[in-house]
Write a sequence for this structure.
């Protein structure tokens, strides 16, 4: 399979489709804390004890740009599958009026009007929904975001690199949409999931840590600096690609030499040129039958969406990964 890296990595991250993802570009990473600064131009309602966002609200997105939201968003368009999952998890079903062509979770998202791809969504389709907030991943092309901003639309762009970034995105989205308490509850549950895994594997000695190779698309793995690598680390294992950074084409010889104990792959991925399933590609590579993971049948398919989408289900992906690596420890 051959396709431009500029299309490859964010598509897998955002929509987990067959065959591809796109390298995140050189945009700055988001702040590690929710980048929220409220302009107190309105008093908080005295009739409710619940947390309320004060509008107009100014936030700083992953591009480093300030975004001002004049009032509570009532018509939200999401061009990113992960952000769509966040919006629905916050109970904003009725306020979401448009999603990317690849949004498939939750089920209700499938019925929402489609606004194009995650890299270059359709501007006309977005405008037709008269949104008062557009949310996109870093894969949204800058000219598209700039055009939408020039039309007076608040456009908030995300690019989480770590699990903390993902949770902070959720908290920020809770503030932006006036769903703070829901966001805090969601993040609290995610933190419980992380603690569950880290507590379960905390007694694994450094010399006993299993070596893990992860292949999320044919011929591609992930190194340090990305949340997929962090998931392996939190699960008490060692990513054999952690000597690299970001998304990388694999070296079959290096992986054979590293001899991983466990191989994880994104389930349901097929090489679009040959039609061969990813697990079959892995098992048929020259010499790989000598690997410990293959000899011991320690090859596991992970749900591609929970594994690759930086949204509220990432901690379920963490639990699944940890169970595959240490089934005796993570029940």
């Amino acid at each position: 399979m051959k396709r431009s890296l500029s299309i490859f990595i964010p598509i897998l991250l955002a929509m987990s489709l067959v065959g591809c993802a796109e390298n995140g570009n050189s945009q700055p990473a988001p702040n590690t804390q929710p980048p929220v600064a409220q302009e107190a131009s309105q008093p908080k309602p005295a009739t409710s004890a619940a947390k309320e966002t004060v509008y107009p609200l100014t936030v700083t997105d992953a591009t480093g740009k300030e975004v001002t939201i004049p009032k509570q968003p009532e018509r939200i368009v999401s061009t990113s599958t992960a952000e769509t999952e966040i919006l629905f998890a916050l109970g904003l079903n009725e306020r979401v009026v448009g999603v990317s062509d690849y949004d498939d979770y939750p089920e209700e998202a499938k019925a929402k009007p489609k606004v194009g791809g995650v890299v270059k969504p359709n501007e006309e389709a977005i405008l037709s929904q008269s949104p008062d907030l557009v949310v996109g991943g870093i894969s949204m092309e800058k000219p598209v975001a700039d055009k939408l901003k020039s039309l007076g639309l608040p456009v908030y762009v995300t690019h989480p690199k770590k699990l903390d970034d993902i949770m902070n995105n959720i908290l920020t989205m809770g503030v932006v949409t006036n769903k703070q308490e829901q966001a805090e509850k969601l993040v609290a549950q995610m933190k419980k999931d992380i603690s569950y895994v880290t507590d379960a594997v905390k007694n694994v000695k450094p010399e006993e840590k299993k070596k893990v190779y992860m292949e999320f698309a044919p011929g591609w793995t992930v190194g340090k600096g990305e949340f997929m690598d962090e998931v392996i680390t939190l699960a008490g294992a060692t990513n054999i690609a952690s000597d690299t950074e970001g998304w990388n084409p694999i070296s079959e010889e290096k992986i054979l030499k590293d001899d991983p104990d466990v191989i994880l792959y994104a389930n349901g991925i097929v090489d679009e040129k040959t039609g061969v399933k990813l697990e079959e590609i892995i098992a048929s590579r020259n010499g790989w039958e000598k690997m410990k993971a293959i000899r011991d049948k320690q090859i596991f398919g992970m749900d591609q969406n929970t594994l690759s989408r930086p949204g509220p289900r990432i901690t379920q992906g963490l639990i699944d990964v940890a169970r595959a690596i240490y089934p005796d420890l993570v029940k």
